[in-house]
Amino acid sequence: MTLGPNCHLITANGDGVNAGGTQNDLVEFTKEGDLVATYQLDGGNPGAAFGIASAFSQGTVRFAAVDDDLNTLTIWTLRSPF
């Protein structure tokens, strides 16, 4: 889990236990618990969405996610409105 600059909670949901639906999602929630968005990190085997981290500095957000199936780390750099 990580906390976004807008105080939204972002989780890595590999869902390696419960089959069905979509697995390997990054899921964003408001601090009130409302679902904001989901992003499927990997369409392969359950358990791929393993870890996430974020960092904020001078109007920039860096967000990283681990794909445990592909052994990759993806890093996004975004301008932050916050």
Q: Can you offer a commentary on this structure?
A:
- It is a single chain.
- This protein is mainly β and 82 residues long.
- The protein has one domain.
- Helices cover 0% and strands 52% of the residues.
- The strands form two sheets. It has a four-stranded antiparallel sheet with strand order 1-2-3-4, with no helix packed on it.
- A hairpin with a 5-residue loop joins strand 1 and strand 2.
- It starts with a strand and ends with a strand.
- The mean pLDDT is 85.
Instruction: Please tally the helical runs, counting DSSP H or I stretches of 4 or more residues.
Output: 0
Write down the Rg.
13 Å
Oligomer: single chain
Strand count, sense and barrel status of the largest sheet are: 4 strands, antiparallel
Q: Strand-and-helix sequence, N→C?
A: EEEEEEE
Number of domain modules: 1
Residue share in helix: under 10%
SSE class: mainly beta
Straight-line N-to-C gap: 20 Å
How much of the sequence lies in strands comes to: over 45%
- Indicate the low-confidence ranges by residue numbers: none
Q: How many strands?
A: 7
* Average pLDDT, all residues: 85
